[in-house]
Every structure is written in C-alpha cells, then in structure tokens.
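As the next step, I selected for study one protein, both as residues and as discrete backbone shape codes, as given directly below:
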Amino acid sequence: MFKRISILITLLLLSILAVAQNVTHYTYKINKEYPHSRASYTEGLFFNDGKLYESIGQYGESAFLQVNLEDGSAIKSTPFESKYFIEGSCILNGYLYILTWKHYTCFVYNPETMVKMADFRNPREGWGMTTDGKSLIISDGSSNIYYHDPLTFMEQKKIKVKLNGKSVNNLNELEYIDGKIWANIYLTDFIVIIDPETGNVIGKIDCTGILSSSLRKRDTDVLNGIAYDPCKKKIYVTGKYWPKMYQISIVPEK
C-alpha cells in the first residue's frame, strides 16, 4: 500500500518537473535600435510584404499607421473617431482587420485605400490580434486566446494559456512567429511563447531594461508591440509612448 503511494507521488513529482523543464527562459540581445514616435500608444505592430504597420490607441489619439522603420515617421496615417479606442490589428488575405477595445467591433479595411469594407461584432473586449495565415487570433486581456473565421468572424476555437499548469492572464499584443504565438503580458516586461496546439507556454522572454531609464519620461508606458518581418526573419519590439523600437534576438538564459 505504502509502496504504491510512494510510486504515485514519485510519478506526480516527475510529471510536474517535466512540465517545468519544457519552458525555456530567455533574455534578449539588441541588434539595432530605431526611432519610435513618443506620440504612439502602441497596440498592434506587424509587418506585411516588408512594410511596417502600427495601430495606436487612446480615445482621441487612435489611428492606424504605415511606419517608416528607419526614422519612425508615419508614411500614412488613418485617424479614428474619438469614441474609438483602437487595439490590435493584422492583414489577412488582402484585408486589414482592426480591433476596438470596448466598442466590441472589429473593422475590416482595404489596406491600400483604407476604405472600410465591413465591421464585425466582437463578443468581448479587443486587445491583441495576429494571424497564422488562416484565422484571426485574438486576445482579450484574460488567459484565453480565440481563433475567428476571417470571413464571418465566427469563433472557431479557444485555447487557455498556461505556464507550468497555471493560467497566464493579461495576454495583450500578439504575433505569430514560426508556428508559435508570442504575447506581451500586460504591465510586465515579459513576453511568452505559446504552443497554439496546447496553450502551454514553452518560452518566456525577460525584456527588463530594454528601454533605458534615461529615455523614460513621465508618460512612458509599458512594453507592448511585437513585430516579425518574415522576409528578413527579424523580430522587433517597442512599447507605449516609447521613443525607441528594438530589433532583437532572444538568448537562452544560462
């Protein structure tokens, strides 16, 4: 009897240890830094066909931008009515999708002309958005990530994100990189790498100190914004009202 209990406890401890060992902890290496507009409250950040796009939030400040990476200026800017707080965005199948925070709407635009094509009712708050090339992948500030059909906006599935068996809340801006979902954890300096099949966190990136204290002002806000350029296989990060954007590599912690 006692031997059996001992074996069960041992197996349980081994399974817990195995889960913990599946999470790789990373730090970062800054390869290059670029100017970023201090006026941009970054919500969505992504590349499409080599062009950098950014959606910025706050009531009365919300806009969608095409950004010149080299100098941080807006090549194109589409402002939104002051009643909208714009959040995550992405381009899929030639259409631009833009979330609102508490207006429960996802706008659909022609990304070249910025003519609105449609809008969908979003059943929850809009936070981050990315795509795997098939679905819209959306966060709402909880530990859930939702997959939506881009044609109907019907929910296809939901995954619960967990780190060592515990739910990870405050998932914010999202990016899809090499088959995995990367997510900012709101109000922290951490980015998690998520297995989209299981919802398990398989990597955690500590970005502490990436924006030096000398560059911070009173209104400088949190890390938020992950963009992957698949053409150059480079990763970029920034934050809300940050003066810099950083092209980084991730490095396993020793």
Summary: The radius of gyration is 19 Å. Residues 2-21 form the longest helix (20 residues).
